[in-house]
Design brief:
By secondary structure, the chain is α+β, with helices and mostly antiparallel strands. It has two domains: 32 residues, no CATH class; 97 residues, Rieske Iron-sulfur Protein (3-layer Sandwich). Helices cover 23% and strands 28% of the residues. The longest helix is centred in the first third of the chain and has 30 residues. The structure holds FE2/S2 (inorganic) cluster. Keywords: 2Fe-2S, Disulfide bond, Iron, Iron-sulfur, Metal-binding, Oxidoreductase. GO terms for molecular function: 2 iron, 2 sulfur cluster binding; metal ion binding; oxidoreductase activity. Its cofactor is [2Fe-2S] cluster.
Length: 181
Amino acid sequence: MAQQGNFKSPTRLGTLGDGAPLSSPGSISAGKPREEGLKGVDFERRSFLGKVVGGIGAAVAVSTLYPVVKYLIPPVSTVASKNEIVVGKASDVPVNSGKIYQFNKDKVLVVNNNGTLTATSAVCTHLGCLVHWDSAANIIACPCHGAKYKETGEIISGPQPLPLPQFKVRVEGEDLIVTKA
Ligand code: FES
């Protein structure tokens, strides 16, 4: 059965007398003063833990962002381009054949047309496919949209807007040497 009555009424409090404590043994304490309540809290430890958590957060952020930034900002090339490169051996390009070599950042097609060596860019000026030497037709041909060039890079036919840029090529001893035109 629920208790009734006003337990905090002055009448009831008065019956407790002046010396009686206002709280009963089972009552909840109103709390300690702030200074007393914070006794035993180790602020240095808390601050240290805060730094550790912050450090871990920073490490996770850096490890996540680093690949993204590296992807967005390509590395600066430290390799200087050369004017002249020994690309291979003269025997690599026998009569009536062609071979593509890397020349700095360019791809160069060296053609041996009946013993005469020529070199042009190997990248079609239409949409950038790699061309090849067609020994049966004696032309440089692009497999993508049918561009045709002379071995010197001039346009024969096709959709390409420009001739192939030329390079110089020569043989020294066994070496095949390509030079910027
Ligand atoms: S890319 Fe060579 S013809 Fe189109």
